[in-house]
Amino acid sequence: MYENQKERTRTMERTIKIFDTTLRDGEQSPGCSMNLNEKIEVARELEALRVDIIEAGFAAASPGDAAAVAAIADIVHDSTICSLARCVEKDIDAAYNAIHHAKDARIHVFLATSPVHMEYKLKMTPDEVIASIAHNVAYAKKHCANIEFSAEDACRSDLDFLCRAFEAAIKAGATTLNIPDTVGYMTPDEYAARIRYLREHTQGIENVVLSCHMHNDLGMAVANSLAGVQAGVDQIECTINGIGERAGNASLEECVMALDTRRDHYGVACNIETTQIYRASRMIQTITGVPVAPTKPIIGANAFAHEAGIHQHGVMANKETYEIMTPESVGIPKNAIVLGKHSGRHAFEDRLRELGYSLDQAKLDKVFAKFKVLADKKKVIKDRDLEALIGVVPVSGEERYTLDRFVINSGNSITATAVIRVKKGDETFERVAASDGPVNAAYRAINKIVDKDVVLEDYSLKSMTDGEDAQAEAIVKIVIDGGEMVTGRGVSTDVIEASIKAYINGINKYFID
Predict the structure, then answer these.
(1) How far is C-alpha 13 from the chain's CA centre?
(2) Distance from the CA of 331 to the CA of which of 261, 341, 414, 456 falls in 20 to 30 A?
(3) Is 252 within 8 Å of 229 (Cβ atoms)?
């Protein structure tokens, strides 16, 4: 059934472009910042996902953002690489300088068009806004043929003024027009009506691609995106796991699987390789340390779980009784890995390939070494264990500090003490500290070693798999010397070791950044 439907999708005439802004809007979400190497890893995965356009960042925001956009433009060849820019010439120059090596480049220019934004933020008259759009889109067009213009807060803008703004952008050379719901205010029927009005009253709009960029403040980002598609939008802007500012953006996996599963209703196709969805989701959770809820559609832990007896009976008789898509269609592993300490490298690499991972030799060697260590602690290694190991191998570059050993003395009637020894290159450092708990004592000892003011903002601990030998995953969010918040992650069958590794991982990221 599913294969026939997929074949039918490929033959459909209208194809919806997927514009992923995980690396720009998604990264602006508190606690979701990424370093250069992590952004490159995410970009590679987005390319494997067959995303049409990757918004790699806001080049004018900082030298680090510009470097990340440029690096992604150099390595990604199958997706359009885009950089955001305000309607300011220096922003447009920065965007072009970052993306000009891309095989297919786009500059994304934006300016607010709502009365409240024009009066209080821009302090510009409507005529000044129109003039700025015309000038800056034309300026961007001199650099790059592929230009997108976004009317910030379009959904609270006067419709006739919005038509004027878009006509100015079209005349200046825009090839894509974005109608964003910047504050997550719209309902689906309102948004669809807005798109229809713009299509009927904007001169030249039939010659450009219309795009939607929806925020989720009222929980309707995906519904509004799909309503936009029905009204004539041909590009959806979204993020992996729906991360983004405030309540987030439209979720890529939900938009894509809605179009794919209900192709009978929407009658459109998209180019996404859906079997990469689960892997992309896990990567973003690992890098940002922001988990998804168990009930999250498509990729949540419970998305394909059936506990009620009547549901279980139906699924055993025929999956289609309660499953409208298969776990395999989004890349969730079908079988648990059956590997142990006697398993060889060939079986290990085969399973990695089955899970959709393609690692370079250096990373493969590191993962296999960690696999053998874990195999001495666990009888059976499952797919989630293997995914955890891949996440443990840093994408953030070489590790400045590594844990050598630790000794914890703790109890409910004594002050906890921790002796921590770490390696930094050929040097070894050991410190002891005391506190009201073993984890905090360990962190204080590490602070003495790195000689930095490290503030723990958040800490979480969860089990990666089931059973008494399950691996624990610790996530920390720390601020060092008053800088930006960084996320650290550690995995071990020992919860204290996982916690220590997470803290050291966060410190390593700080030094790399």
Answers:
(1) 29
(2) 341
(3) no
